[in-house]
Amino acid sequence: MLLLVAPALVSAGQDPDVLRVTGFDVRSVEVRGAVDVEISQGDTAELLLRGEPASLNPEPFHVRGQTLVLGAAAGSGKSAGGVAFKLTLPTLDSLLISGSGDVFVRPLQVASFSLRVNGSGDAHLFALHADTARIDMRGAGDVQVAELSVQELHLRLSGAGDIQLGPLQAESLQAVLNGAGDIAVADAGRSAALAVTVVGSGDVNFAALVMDEANVTVVGSGSVRLGP
After folding, report:
1. What global pTM score does this model have?
2. Is 116 inside a domain boundary?
């Protein structure tokens, strides 16, 4: 069983170096640099930031269209560090993590969701309920989803990272692993249709899954374990 515990990142009113931002309308989030982020689903968009005064000036975030960029000021190619963000959004369509950030996403219910990690960052999702979900890991980071219920799930891992899933319900599951990483389902789950492709030395462990049909392709020294 995957057990996720999110740290208390920001408490408004308890730290003199806390900023509160409202009045923005976004559906996507991009996280840059070595920052800590906690995302929750709620009725009103709100962003809290905590850090040393020097790290909050200029403000280490900006809005680009429908995307909120955390960890970089507007017009700056430099990523911030040492800043903690606590974000509340009514909905979240996509999340991109570039760098070594650590992102926690509390239970999320949306129509479709896309997660992409580039680099050594980590993403921890408490629960995801969606019609369609895509998880794309490129690098050496880790993705953990404690609970997942979707119609269609697409997993892609390139590099040495890990994707770990808790209890899983998916009508259709497609997993592609290219490299030396690992994809695993830790708890019992079900998928009506499963397709797995492994290229390289990576491992896929779906032994906990019950499935109606499976299509498996392995090129290299990698392995795939399936359930009964």
Report:
1. 0.92
2. yes
